[in-house]
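Sample entry follows:

_____
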Amino acid sequence: MIKTSAKTARILIDKINEVVKRPIKLMEVCGTHTNAISASGIRQSMPKKLQLLSGPGCPVCVTAQSDIDWVIGLARTDKAVIATFGDLMRVPGTESTLEKEKAQGANIRVVYSCLDSLKYAEDKKPAVFIGVGFETTAPTIAGTVIKAHANKIKNFYVAPFFKLIPPALRVIASNPGLKIDGFILPGHVSTIIGKRPYQFLVDQYRKPCAITGFEALDILQGIYLILKQLKDRKPEIAIQYERSVNQQGNLTAQKIIKAVFKTTHAEWRGLGVIKDSGLLFANKFARYDARAHFTIKVPKPKPTGCRCGDVLLGSIIPPQCGLFAKICTPSNPIGPCMVSSEGACAAYYKYER
């Protein structure tokens, strides 16, 4: 099995080398892809003219600084039990982190799903789930809200910091300064939304793409599919991850998202405010919006020298940030890209220094 995989990998790498004749930049959109590329040594196996750049596919990393500060401010008020996924705990805010606030007595609980947070709403103090994630996370949170609504749970709220991937890709594809030649599209998100929402990348920007799985062979094949499109000058949205992704996506999940949320403008770290790139509660479920229920004063951000935003945009790689592996380390993260397991800086620090 191992020998077969190694042999297949070598064949794919040789094919990639055969078609790369000029400098090419490909962006892997998903943070899980970034981690897999670093961990498996794919980047070092590529021809020198082929550059793999990380994109805005780490949900914690793209969460705006003001949103992180809002959560920390809520924790300090002691007006609610805060439920969050663990990778948000160490993300630096302007003045603190959730981990530090918890150490000082704030009522913060790490949960594995939004559904877990409902049990904290059974007490008199409200429970607030921090809704950070992409299209993959949104259906489970929408389902939890539907359950809370059906069970008439009145002291449960969600802070809707969700992000949608296609609008962010439009910003990157339309930026002439980035010069991205093609996209390795996310497997998990595409399982939910399918292939069609990416079609504008081909129709408007002529960018070849491949929806790709997360094994090393998946990624190598996805890279080759994109390079072949570039060579033939026939861009398309190829589906390498056929075992999980189809044309239309998960229609049930899409229906749940549409029932609970509506699109709204959202601020992305590094990319700014992007039209229709976030999710807000539909009128029927508006009462569950924590931001409408709790008024929190957010501090003015302070410059740190962190270039996480540039990393998410693909304009630099982590070692090009002056703080990387010097001041900014996993034990002392200055920006979120060094915190999350899906962050490019964390992946480079662990595997590529």
Summary: The domain at 60-164+249-293 is CATH 3.40.50.11740 (Rossmann fold).
